[in-house]
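Let us practice reading a record.
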Amino acid sequence: MLAIARMSSHKTTTAIARARAIASHMSTYAASCLDQPVLFQSNGCTRTFKLNRTQKLNTLNSVMVDALRHQVELWSKSDLCRMIIGTGSGRAFCAGGDVTSVLRDALGAETRPRALDFFRKEFELVYILSQLPKPYVAVLDGITMGGGVGLSINAPFRVATEKTVFAMPETKIGFFPDVGASYFLPRLDGELGTYLALTSETLVGREVFEHGLATHYITSRSVPSLLTHLAALENPSFSQINRTIEELHVERQPNEADGKLTGTIRNALDATFRHDTVEEIILSLESLTNAPDTRVRLWANQTLETLHMRSPTSLKVALFAQRRGRQMTLLEALQMEIGIATAYCSDASQDFRTGITAALIDKIQGRPAWFPDNVSDVSSETVDRFFSEHSPYRSLAPKFSVDNLPGRNFDFMTYSLPSESELLNSIQSACKKGPVTIPGLLFTLDDICKRKFGTADKIIDIVHRKCDVTTSNGTTTATWKGD
């Protein structure tokens, strides 16, 4: 009996030791998984990637780009995957590319091909995501800038929250808005895209939705519920996904401040940033520094100060790319951008080096030592370095390897708010017989408003900018101003 008891005790001790070893292994494995810069999850027919470089605000490096491409291509071909969701850990979806590492590689002739290869792989991933044959939902619950915009902008469904901070900040660092920005920014309403490209200014929360960069707006605390609802869809169609996200939409609250680029400021923005040269944009802004409208006057002065802080070369390169991108496909725009990025990495301008060193390494607060120092000193020959097919600065530009993709032609604005041009036609038609009350106008356009939450707010903003609005005896009416 004693021997049996000892054997039993030994077996118990061994079992406990084995259990502890397994638990330790599983704990180490789980910790190792959590340390990965990108996490991949499966839930029913839903596949999710989570950017997990939290300490770096999920900025993209080559390892992350390679991992994303490999997994996304597998999901794209899998019959078990019916929907892809992109999220980020911590305070960011993705704050951009790891440009400090790119600059370090670009500085040396031997390592420069590695910098160019990063841009190639990043741009190819942007295009691959745009061509996905199944629904893709990007949850932008935090900082979404630069490369992070590239990862998300071509998702049919882009969900913003009050924590979303959008920017294409490249002119701050002596670079230019890339990852397809020369394609998607010109397709925003009016001259918003030109303004965002040149100034690097941010949009926050609901603004990201109202200006079309996000397709939906929910609260941050609703994100877990959204992910649960999406995962519960057995065979999700685009319309089902759209309705599922729309059900969590949060309307503008009475005490919620208007967006900063609305009303008279928006009119001023469109008037000043419509020009095709940076010099004309600056002159137009200077003409508004004494405008009778206080808001416009302050905005014009602030915008001039902002442009003065930016690289003059980057301003001219960015504007030229924006204007060329209007007539391009996404792939054509990305091909143009890889040439521009190559020129920057090949010292077509020293401002890329100056900007990153100042902003991200030395972290100075003032204006970097740009060269040339003034917009007027940036010659057309300098700009040609970035765009001419014969430019030696573009000679190392890598070729894309995305020829085997099906070439899906999907409008990234499909599930965004209706465009301003579309709404203008409806407003003008409703006002053609004379003054109309605001409630009457919204009633006339009720079918349009019902299609998408937030449309009524956009209509009211357009009416106040494009119509003569008067109030008499408590009734507000709008009269079309004419072209």
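A brief commentary: The radius of gyration is 26 Å.
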